[in-house]
């Protein structure tokens, strides 16, 4: 760069920082001589320090000084206002930057602290590009700075100063201990437990840069914004069009924390090596590290390539390093298998410290409810309570707003238009973050609704839906760019005032003792936003629209909506302008909003990892929060389409099956199941809050007779002749090669052979089969993985049970589908009761008649309510609709 009048102060500052001068000295020089690099260099080199030496050779800058723990090198001690970027700033980064330059200089000057230079000039890198007459950027031997015994005290002081918290949590201390010992670490801790601090504090303590690999722009943005509020400078580099200014500054060590998406970090290996050589890299933190594993729920192939970090930042590759730069991997959802995969894939050291704290979230109230989850009529039933909560106790079920979707076609059209509408809406918005008042929000929303409606009418005139859109209705976390910015920088504001915003006293520590947990039982659910997770993009739109129809401030979030819309939803959610966000899995990972009161899953999640991760967005203030799963308990869930290898498919089925079992469970505390799923021992007897703990389990039933019949039939169908029951072995009648007795056939045979069970329900037997499989009496006879056992075959234990005779009882709690079949269809509560009266032809006749009539009415009702909806639920249906429209 040549000096010229049109050169901005910030450019000069950046260049001088790059050359290794201290911030304070640079700023002082620029104040004195103006934004001229040469003059500033001359000024710095010649002007004496307070102690009489030139700044360039002051003890602070001298070769002998070292970066020491606790010494903050950059913009940390900020007084007064600071230049804090927001997304909108970054969009117009250069313009604003220039505009503010002169005015903000003094602010910047006050807000930036010193660059610590720590190395002898003769130690400077020989291949340096910097001119020899200016001090070189310091070379930090990238080993951990000498650790004083008081590091913990200093860390606590920094914690208090920046975040307002009194002390670190135990697991945070452990993670820091591992870092200080230059060990790799794998931090496994519950959602919302404070994992971020484990990698943020090292930046403050060491004066080096912490590089954080994070999967989503929205997540990086949230964290940077928060850090800036706490007086810590940070930036994020996504994978979109890079902003060379921010990237260059990041690689020059301007920011204390640099968030990078995995794709970008692979591109930046060389500049990062230079950064390690100059300012130094304290640590590579890999957040949401479960994305590394194919056996996790959010596999991201680029995460897998992060092994380059170990290979390129170790002593054998970088001669100036004395020790490898440590890796810190963090997640809230990793099973043992995923943990092993992480350690191996990232080439983490054999001495990796596993920092482990409980996954248990004691203030989350888990429950499961049965719902069709597929039509507006189920929305009305299921969201009644939500509507009452948010819409000032309007009566649910009364005539709805004329806006409410009545059929899927409308929902589809509107969804597309909603996206369009949102685009224009957000494009017209002022580029700053304003907090939207209730009234203005309502006005805007009404406007949106009206224009959506208008667009819907217009759209009817020949607008066609693309097949690709129809088939591609599921979100995955394959892509990092979920917002319309690809990078951003955030300079820390003074944390003093911000402590009031993040008042730690409002953050209640999660109760662990049972008396404390019992108190939660009597707490009412406080006000706060809700996130509804749905499997498909289409449902985000239709449910959001449904809720808007009741005057609720709700909006949709899915990866296919315009990014400007997504950014607006993020912002409004954080500013409490939205009451409900209806989202696919694209929303939420790592979101740290304290007061989310409800997480509703509307439809089966694909795994318990995903479920727990998403549910973990609730109640981060430690107060009571609801996590409700609405699922169709009468249907076995299916895998959402995704490209998987055969092995991955098998594993995905296994994960879905675990999730299905969680939903079907009627006898075990839900928190216990979730926590134990991750391999942790649950030390409490129960959580006291979940639906099972509150409502209790259904009565134990002795199903010995039914079990025996079931096993007999399975055995007989499998080719074994047993004569204790009159089971016909009709395997002989069918060719052996194609014969596979499936559960339907088993039930069919039972109905045929045992009059007592002639009208028994598939659902009930399916439940029993699952229980038997869980206890190891039967196993899947098919090679393929299934969510629910399809082709039962007896195990050794099953044979033993069968031979043990009827003396042995078989007590069990009926599971959710069994209860459902008993409650909805018949008045009996167990088979023994149900059997009564069947011998009487009159009663039998009446019952069958009633059952037929019930079925007829139900079918007719369902057909009417969901005719077009169902059509549009299948690709074939949607294509048919499209064709009929075209004709
Ligand atoms: N030592 C502490 N004392 C009190 N509060 C803390 C402490 N450490 C962190 N917190 C607070 O805990 C909250 C959650 O932190 P953070 O976002 O780091 O959670 P997380 O473990 O990363 O969760 P997730 O798995 O969802 O990403 C934040 O609001 C944070 O300020
Ligand atoms: Mg986190």
UniProtKB/TrEMBL annotation:
Biased amino acid composition, Polar residues: 76-85
Entry's Gene Ontology BP terms: double-strand break repair via homologous recombination
Domain (UBA) ranges: 6-47
Positions of the UniProt region annotated as Disordered: 64-85
Domain annotation Helicase ATP-binding: ranges: 176-352
An example Gene Ontology CC term for this record: chromosome
MF terms in GO: 3'-5' DNA helicase activity; ATP binding; four-way junction helicase activity; hydrolase activity; nucleic acid binding
Top-level division of the source organism's lineage: Eukaryota
Keywords: ATP-binding, Helicase, Hydrolase, Nucleotide-binding, Nucleus
InterPro entries: DEAD/DEAH_box_helicase_dom, DNA_helicase_ATP-dep_RecQ, Helicase_ATP-bd, Helicase_C-like, P-loop_NTPase, RecQ_Zn-bd, UBA, UBA-like_sf
Principal localisation: nucleus
Protein name: ATP-dependent DNA helicase
Source species of the chain: Dillenia turbinata
